[in-house]
Structure formats: structure tokens, C-alpha cells
């Protein structure tokens, strides 16, 4: 395993950094070598990508904080317009210059302003002879802002003529970023997913003070055995580990088993974890409810998850409208006459269907249908006469707002609106009952 | 959300707080002023009553929610540094509030909910609606606007400069929200402790910020996701609680939010009372009571209930419909002055004008009453106002007593009916109520079959029912029920005795024992036949006799007390019966109305010349009607030239034979213009639209196309 070493930084700091970012040593040393010494110009833009919770943000934050490099850390989701984003960068830059009285309101509407203000901010401080790092987390959001933002950030060093490096963090690959018009190619760095061994190591690192590290590591081992198949998200695993740990400790607390009695402990926790996988992990029941349940030792059966409440009570005609919409969506128009007319003539032979129509319509998904067809089917499936009142029509719109139907083609609302039925067969069965 | 309610013009007129509208066609003598006032005060009573009911019904839900909110950020406040709290990822506490599909009612629920919150938990509440938040920017703007305003509400004038700054330029970001929150909480904690004493006793030091998404379904997925991601990053600094108002099922959360986002939430489910139960309570408290003098007739009630069950499930709309009935009743019925509490009614009867007396004499129910009197009294009633007034007082009292008895007996009957298999008379008391209002319930087949079924009830059921009935009668306000109660109690004691008697001689199973001894098939058959024979011919047991008696007694109660209201004299004063008006207002059929207007213009224009027997197209009708009728005969695509031809032929027939020479080959310019105008009017109404499939053709948009 490569130890971190760099002539510019003291060994103690590097050692501390290494303990903070386990399993990411190679990436960190790569970054360090790109960064170079404080006063050296670094690569203008670095693009770091990797799957969810592969430690991109965490590593960057720790790296910059431990080495005390001047930096700005911005989440692009949070600052959703370019103006907010640029202003936030400037505000943070001002605050790290340790001149509090200077934090006046900044107005920065365009990138041009930004470059000008950035020059001022960097020049006015002792930052001059240091590289300033601007980290943009969730950088994929930049693509949705103005077209010039991303290319400009990539060559910010050139534009400002200052020692600035922009680091982009994202979950998607650089290929999906590259604008049509071409741009400066950043240095790309991939953070691979943590392996199961890595996860084990990282998770066991933070053991609770009252139990030994080995005990906790054994627990993590069991936890990963259950959850690794479905979830590799470090944060989520950590959360689950904490939630279920008290249950794991229960036999030990009661004195029924000692800390080494792994088999007994495993038997105790395994069904519990499986249950957790079906409930808490899917957010069927909330973590606090889960904790309360654990505390009271109650059966999870009595607490129904979110998916258990699928039944929707609908007014009489809404039900029929929904059923009619479902029929209209999944039956071909041809068959309407046969299904809904009293005297439809004789039913032709079954093999009249063409080959491609034999695939189930349910696999093909709902098809759009016009309003008139919906009403025609409605009239034929409701026993008594239905007056086409305003209430019926407003129910159709209500069903659309409830997302049980969806409108297709928004431009044609007044003349001939078309709808699709978006509910499943099971739902319709429940409604039709 | 839709399930719309269209405020009727009449209501608006009323809300102007003038009785002028009430006067309308009617003249002064009919107490329009008084009627208006009565109507207003009655409505105020009913309104406060319904609000009270709603509050009571929602109490449980709100209590749960409040305790959830209290717990939600306890960790935040206590700032625990325990290992578990440090390690666990902080989720945003979220309440999924399933409210049912009656979206129109939600507004009121949310309003009272935020009131409750304001009083108990936190002043910082934001109510967001999907239509205001098409993107994350407007959502943040809305959110911050609401939160910062609520802050200024708390201490009103102190921070005016601050408000101005924020209104000029709010940086709509989470950071500014956090800064605001910090400044607000700090201020309440330290700077003005004396002033804040009152509010800080209600709220904690750092009250949570509650964000309510009123209609979760309509929000754009991206907006919600972004908002949740952003706020989860700042949950340590800003104690946020989300509340999702859900109309359908909580599954929608999972379909709107991917796992990566929903894993940031700590969702707990809360379910409100079903709207059907709500309606039952409303009907119970508004209609099945003598508290309010105004009553709904059977048909009207049926219309309201049908709209509720068939169309919108909205209790608010039901109440609005009830209000409309009331306004309509007081507006159209001059005698509705007497529709008030009995005490007032007596006074008002004495001050009735001669015209009003005449109005009473015209009432059909009163006429019937008069016809049944002896001839001298008939004359007196029809000529002497004073005598009439005395009689009216008596009759009104009768009516009041009838209502009192009616309600109790109805409830009593409902006790019996509601436990029968298959519910021949309906399960809910409202169905029974409608049936009783409609006609004489004892003459219906359903009643007959329910009595049959009641005669087969087992004893324990019967006893519990009788006990319930006794309770109903004892608690009722009717005065005539002493005897009934006595009788029912007597039944109960008889049942008691019967039980004792049976316990004394439980040897009656001997025959069965004998039966078990027999092994021979032939003998077995024989004894079985004998047994059957004996059972058929056997006299009714004591229990069966008693059961018959009980059912007969109930039957007699029904026959005396559940007389339909329109058999009662002067029922017109308190009952609103014109269901057609109500249907026209609440369940309008625009398509049908449009069709009638265009197909049969006489219906609306009342011009004798337009009166036709249908079929043929009259040439005196407005152009648009002619065009409409012609287009009804076409298929999906209409050739404009043919259409024009037909139009000019029809119109030319009016002009008379002298014009035919000119119109044979060349269409008159004026007719052409009229045609074009009519067609474009039709297009405006949405019957046709220009088509690109064929030149010179338009497409039909209504029936006939498919």
C-alpha cells in the first residue's frame, strides 16, 4: 500500500490525512502530485467521477482541509442558478481571506463579472502565491445552466490569469459533459467503487466506544453479508449498521452470550436484518419507527409499510372513468365494437390477429386515446344512464392531477385532448372490486 | 386539484350582505328582510357547527402529528453527542399525510392544521402548492417569502427595515434561509426575553420549520428531489420537517422519488378520517337533529348525497350544497320566515300580514288539512286571520314534535336494520332517512323483507338492540316516549325470564340423544321425518312469540312516527324540495345545454317562430343553429363547399322563391359571409377544427367522428 509522501507537506499531516481517507490512498497521492506545491500552478481543471458514495466529496474535503489549502466548496444542486453559484463562490472566497468587514453583498450576474471579481478577491489577499481550489460538487447540474458556464469554468485559470484550479465532482462520466462546441479537456480521475473489503474496513473503523473493535467488525461482517447484495452505498450501510447495532448487542447486554459467541449473535441478528432489508432499507417504515419498534420489541407486522396502503377510495363515477380509461388504453380500437356493443355480429375466428398483436398489450404499455372514446366506453360500462355533466368532465381532470391518468400532447387541450391510463392492472382490479 | 365548486351567482349576491337580492320579484309584504336575517343567522350557526365537527374529527390526526413534530427534532435540540447520533445519517423527518381524493376539503384541513401548529409547535410554517412551484427557484422564493413573513407577523413592527431589505432582494438560497433562522432564533432567545416570554413558552428555543406540500402528486419530480437533496445537506443547521399532503396512496412517494432521495427522508404515515365517515357525522349532526329548523326534502338530499358519492367525495361541497338549498329556500319561499326556532316562530306567526296568511292558505298541505276539518272550522280557517294564526301555532308545534319523534324512531329502526344480512334498507342511516322521506316506508318491499329478516334474529342480538333502543329513547328529547321505554323494558325483562326458564329445563335435548342411539338406517330416516313433522306443526316457542311481539311493536312505532314529511301539514315551511333547481346549479351539463340551445333554439329564445317539431331545419333559426344541424348529418370530415351549399339552400328557402334564380349557381355574398361567421362560431365553441388531412375540409370534434 503506497504511503502518502510529498515534499511540500509535513509528514505528520500526511499521516493524519491517510488515516482519514482509508482505501483511497492511490487517488489522494495522484491528486497530491497534480496539485504540486502551494505556490505552483496546478492543472487548470480536474474532473473527478465515480459512483454514488465512492468518497469523492469526502476525500476532497478532507484533503483540502487537512492540508489547509485555500478552497471554495460549492454544491451545484443547492445553488441552482448561475448567479447564485457565482455569488456563492465569491462569498466563500471572501470569507477565507479572513477579512470579515469585507463581506459586503456581491452582485455577479455574468461570468465576465465573475472573472473580474475573482481577480480582485484573489489579488486582495495573501492568496496570491497559493493555488486556490474551486470545487464544484454535483457538477452535472452545470450542464443545465447557461451554455458558457461549463467551458468557462474549465479554463478559469486562463481567463483570470491567476493561480486557480477548478475541481468538478460528478457521478457521470466526462463524455456526457463534453459540449458540442468543444472545450478545454480537464484532467479526469476515476474513483472506483469500494470493494466489500474496503467497505468492511471503513465501516469497522468507527466502532462505538463501549465495545471492542473486533466485536463491531464481526457485526459489520454479518451486516455486509446480508446487505451487500442490494446496497453498496456506504452512507446507507453505515446508517443501517447504527440502526441495528443495539439489537445485535442485546444478548450480550442480557448476559446470554459473550462478545465472542458469534454464532449465537448471528442467529439472533440475521432474521432481524432481513426484515430490515424489506422495511427500513426501502423506507417502507421510517428509521425512527424502526428504532421504536426495536425498543419495544414489537412485531414489525403490526406496523404496515407505505406500500401496504395501496387502496384508493374513489367516487363512483371516477372509478368507472378509470376503468374505462384502462380499457381504452389497453384494448385496441378495433375490439371496442365487439366488447361494448350489444349486437356486434358474429365473432370471427381467433387467428385473425396478426402475429405482432399476440404479444400481450400489457407488455406494450398504455396507448393514448381520445376523450370521446373514453366517454363512449364509460357510457357502455355504466348500467344506468350517465348525463355528461360538468362534474364528470372535472373528474377527468382530477384524475389527471392525481396522476392516475396522464394527458398526452399538451398543445391540443381544447380540441380533442388525448389521455393515457397510468395505473397498473392490480390497481384497476382493486378499484373494480 | 379539481373537483371544482362553482360558486353560484345567488351566493355571491348574498355575500354582499344586502337583502336587496332577496327582495327581488317579491314585494315588501313578504318579510324579505326578516327572511334574509333568519337565513344568515341560521347559516352562521350551521357553519360554526360544521367547523366544530370537523375540528373534533381531525383532533386525533392532529394530535398524532403534533406529537410527531415534537419528537422529530429532539436530537437537534438536545445536541446529543452519543455515538449512535453521531454516526447515523440525519434524515429529514417527514409526515406522509394521506387525506383522500377529496382535494377540495384539504384546504380547510391544512388551514386548521397550520393553526394548530402555530399554537403548539412553531410559528414557522410554509404551505406550498404545486401550481406555485414549477421549478426549484420559485419554490425557494415562495418558501422564503412565507417563512419570513410569518416571522414579521410574530413581532409586527419592530423589523420593518429588515422586511424591506428582504423584499428588495432575497437571495433565494438555503444559506440565506439558515442565516435568517439563526437570527430569528437568537433574537427570541436572548435579545428580547421579556417580550418573548409568551411565545417561547409555547414554542421551544429552536422550533422546527415546517414545510407543507399540499398536493404532493402535482409537484414536478425534479423540484421535489432537488429540494430534498438541498435541505438534507443543511438539516444540521435548519430543523426542517416536511409534510406531504397525499390524495391517493403513499405509494406515490416511491414513484415520485428515487431511492437515493427517499433514503434522505424519515417518513411516517398519517391517515385522515375517511370522507364517508365525515359525511355521516355531518348528516347526523346537521339533518338528524331538531337543533336546526331548516330541513331537506328527500329528493334534494338524494341529489346532494349522489353528488358526493358519485362525483367528488367532498364534504365541503356537500355543505356548500346544503347552504345553497337554504338560500334558495329562504329566497323563494315567502313563508320561510316561520322557519326558525319554535319560540321565535310563535311570535312571528302573530305578526303575519294578511298576504302571508293567504300564502299559507294556498299551501297544498294546508288545503288538505282544511278539507279534513268540519265545515264551520273550514270557513273560520279560510276567512279569519286570527283563528288561522292560532291553528298555525298549533300545527307548527305538531311539526316540531313530529321531528323530535321522527329522529328517535329513525335511529331506533336503524339499529334494527343495520345488522340485518344484505341490508335491504341500506346500511347507513342516511339511506334509511331518504327512504323514509321519500314515501311511506312500511309500504315498500324492502321494509317487508327486513321485517321478515328481523323476525329471524337470534336472542342475544335482539336483546342488545332493544337495549340500544332504550338508550336512544331515554336520551331523546321527545316527550311521548315514556310508554315506549316502559314497553321496551318490559320486553327486556321478559327475555330475561325466558332465559331463566330455559336454564331450568334444559332437558329438552332428549330427542337428540335418542337419535344418537339409533343405528338402523331405516329407523333413523323414520325418526328424522317424524322430527321434522313435529317441528313444522309445533307451536311457536315462547321466545318466538316474544320476538314477533317485539318486531310488531317496532313496526307500529314506525307506522306512527315515520310518516313522510310531505304528509305533514305546513311541511313546505321548513322543507326544501325543489331538487331540479339544485341539480341545475350543482350538476350542470354544459354539453347537453349547448346541444339543446343549438338544436332547439326555442328552448332558450322563446320565440314562437322558432317552435318546430324537430327533424326539419327551420330557416328562421339563427345561422349557427342551421350550421350546427347541418353538421350533425356529416361524418368526421366535413366538406366546406357542400356545407355552404346546404346552408344557402336552407337560408334561401326563407327568402322566398324569387331569389332562387340568382342562388342557383352563385351563392350570395351575404349568405357566404353569414356562413363563414357561423362556422367560425362553431369552431370557437369547439365543435369543429380545421383539418390538414384534406383541403377545404374541417374535422368534427364531437360525436359522429368515431
From TrEMBL, chain A:
One of its GO terms (cellular component) is nuclear origin of replication recognition complex. Residues 216-283 form the ORC5 lid domain. One of its GO terms (molecular function) is DNA replication origin binding. Residues 21-167 form the Orc1-like AAA ATPase domain. It is found in: Nucleus. Pfam families: AAA_16 (PF13191), ORC5_C (PF14630), ORC5_lid (PF21639). Residues 314-433 form the Origin recognition complex subunit 5 C-terminal domain. Component of the origin recognition complex (ORC) that binds origins of replication. DNA-binding is ATP-dependent. The specific DNA sequences that define origins of replication have not been identified yet. ORC is required to assemble the pre-replication complex necessary to initiate DNA replication. PANTHER family: ORIGIN RECOGNITION COMPLEX SUBUNIT 5. Belongs to the ORC5 family. Component of ORC, a complex composed of at least 6 subunits: ORC1, ORC2, ORC3, ORC4, ORC5 and ORC6. ORC is regulated in a cell-cycle dependent manner. It is sequentially assembled at the exit from anaphase of mitosis and disassembled as cells enter S phase. This is Origin recognition complex subunit 5. It comes from Psophia crepitans.
From TrEMBL, chain B:
Belongs to the ORC3 family. Component of the origin recognition complex (ORC) that binds origins of replication. DNA-binding is ATP-dependent. The specific DNA sequences that define origins of replication have not been identified yet. ORC is required to assemble the pre-replication complex necessary to initiate DNA replication. Binds histone H3 and H4 trimethylation marks H3K9me3, H3K27me3 and H4K20me3. InterPro entries: ORC3, ORC3_ins, ORC3_N, ORC_WH_C. GO terms for cellular component: DNA replication preinitiation complex; nuclear origin of replication recognition complex; nuclear pre-replicative complex. The gene is Orc3. This is Origin recognition complex subunit 3. Residues 591-703 form the Origin recognition complex subunit 3 winged helix C-terminal domain. Keywords: DNA replication, DNA-binding, Nucleus, Phosphoprotein. Component of ORC, a complex composed of at least 6 subunits: ORC1, ORC2, ORC3, ORC4, ORC5 and ORC6. ORC is regulated in a cell-cycle dependent manner. It is sequentially assembled at the exit from anaphase of mitosis and disassembled as cells enter S phase. Residues 349-579 form the Origin recognition complex subunit 3 insertion domain. Pfam families: ORC3_ins, ORC3_N, WHD_ORC. It is found in: Nucleus. GO terms for biological process: DNA replication initiation. Residues 1-338 form the Origin recognition complex subunit 3 N-terminal domain. One of its GO terms (molecular function) is DNA replication origin binding.
